[in-house]
Every structure is written in structure tokens, then in C-alpha cells.
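mind reviewing both lines:
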Amino acid sequence: MVEYNINTEGKAIVAAFPSQVSGRTFLITGPSQGGVGAETAISLADASPSTLILLGRDLTKIQPTIDAIKAINSSILVKYIPVDLASLTSVRAVAIAILDDSTIPKIDVMINNGAIMAAPYSLTTDGYESHFQINYLSHFLLTNLLLPKLLMASPPARILNVSSAGHSVSDVRYESTDFEKGTKYVPWFAYGQSKTACILFSVELNRRFKESGCKVRAFSPTPGAVDTGLQRFVTKEMREEGMKVWIASGKAAPVRKSLQQGCATYLRASLDPALVDQDLVFLSDCVPTDNPEELSAYAVDAENAKKCWALSEEMVGEKFDLKL
């Protein structure tokens, strides 16, 4: 039996739930080499999934992940689909391609992992602050567009909107998600805002699924403090600044984790049948939690979740209603 804590490794969770992997289809955004998304995909390969759909911007960064999967099990269908999360046009094109692909009849688990962290201020091609669109808004759009194939899954699909302990530094700044055109920009706050939105997305999805009598579940796992390419913009000075903000909020310095420990929380949220019958959406160190020391109240507030959904619909220019 797996013990769920900070030391749990992804491969142990896959080994504990092989029937939840075998023959199923998983979609992962941002599975670049050396990242938690890639480690998740590679761990899943141990239990023979039918299909792994890998979405990313640069094949050269994802090819090593594909090679590692094929080295474990060459029979797995691995589909790489290029996407630019900084472009809603690109996201819509990817959704159409997946919906039209007869080799993808359903999606069992969707892991919205692709992200940037503490990057310099910039706007996307759609005119939105980059963290907010890449980490959250494009995933909001993609998930809603792919619901027809998520609803085909049996047992019911799961949607993971990856968050971070960093959500605690900022709620969604509804008056100006772009920090007043960058004039009041703080990289850590931009990252935190986007990760709060990811949790709110899971909260509102679950409310809508429940009201519709649908068994699909959404979760927001945090991988914890794992050293990956996500930190490529983080200088020594920025790391020290971020740590000061973190400590000032009353939190202890985070414990560094391995890739295997980081992906374990994703994998439990994706696979463990026991999670379906509980209401918590946020997972940290492999455990669902509403501990206020780890989860800010604004990130799971139902009215805030509705407000974030409405803003997101306005930003993508499309309304979404769950139709079963």
C-alpha cells in the first residue's frame, strides 16, 4: 500500500493503480524534457496506457520525453501536437485537430501542466499578460473545447489544472490582470495570480459537473519545489526576493523535491479512485488538503470561482455551458 506524503514517488502510484492507466488516453501540456509533465508521462508508460497526447511548443524539447516513453513500451501511441499557449488561435486549432482525430475517441485524463514562472513582463499575441494566458487562460479554453471527448471517457474523466503553493501570493486581479499594462508588474504576483485562477477553474468545473449530474472531476495538484526548466527566468536575486515574500507570509522554506516526488501528486490526482468521493480540489505532497497554511481561502471561494469563469469567457470571447 502506498503511503502518501512528500516522499511518495510517481512510479509507486502508477504501480498501485495499473488498471487506471492500462488502455487509457492521457493528454499532457508542457511535457518538456526534465520537467514534471515529462516525468508524469514517462511514469505512466510503465502501466501501458493506450495513448499519450503531448502538447508543446517545441518538438526538440519534447522528443526526449517521447524517446523515453517508447524505450519503456514501444506499443504506446504517442501523439505530439504543437501548440502555442500564448495564442488562442493556436489553442483553437489544436482543439479542432483533436476533436477531428478518429484515433482519439476519448480523453480519460487531461493534465494542464504547461506554464512559465516569474518571466519578464510581456503580452501574448492576444494582448493578455503572459503568465495569465499561458498558465491558465489557454487551458481554460482548451479544456472547454475538448469536453466532448472528455465526456466520452468511462470511468469518468479527470481534469488536472496544475497549481502551485505560489498561488498564495495573489488572488486574481480582476481590475487589471496585466498589472496596469506592466507599470505595476511583479513577476511573482503574476505567477501567483495565474495559479490561483487554475484552482478557481477546478472549483467552478466541479460545481458545473455536479449540477449536471456528471461524474467528471477536476483537481489542482501542486508538484512542490522541484528544480526544472520552469525556473529558467528565476535569477538568484529573484529567488531571494521570492523567498522573502514567502517567509513574510508566515510559511516555512519549501523542501526541495525530486521529479519523481513532484509528479506523484499529479499521478494520485489522475488515478486514485478514492479521490472521487471527496470534495477537496487542491492536492499537496500527494494529499488532498484545505489546510489554510497551504491553501488560500480566495482560491476555493465559490463566488470567486464564478467571477473568474465569467472573466475568462469574456477574455476568450466565448461562453461555455455544460451540455450532456
